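Inverse folding, one chain.
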């Protein structure tokens, strides 16, 4: 007498066979380079964050965030570019 269905459970109707893909974590537009921490209780991401709404609605604050983002991204791009050879240069493996 099988209590748990067929061996291996392959034919069970209550088991989902769909694969789940990981969703990319939203990044915080206020803190460049950091993930959204859902600072407010009723927030599901940057799209409904009241702080993001206020900052992006003010020209001076939005420009400040833009400058901060550039300061964070530029050094990272320099490190990535320094690790790669210039375009058109052949790299020989030894």
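Residues assigned per position:
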């Amino acid at each position: 007498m099988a209590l748990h269905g067929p061996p291996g459970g392959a034919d069970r109707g209550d088991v989902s066979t769909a694969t789940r893909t990981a969703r990319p974590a939203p990044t915080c537009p206020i803190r460049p380079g950091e993930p959204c921490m859902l600072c407010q209780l009723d927030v599901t991401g940057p799209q409904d964050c009241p702080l993001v709404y206020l900052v992006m609605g003010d020209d001076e604050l939005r420009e400040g965030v833009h400058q901060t983002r550039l300061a964070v991204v530029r050094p990272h791009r320099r490190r990535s570019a320094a690790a790669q050879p210039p375009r058109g240069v052949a790299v020989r493996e030894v």
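The mean pLDDT is 75. DSSP finds two helices and no strands in the chain.
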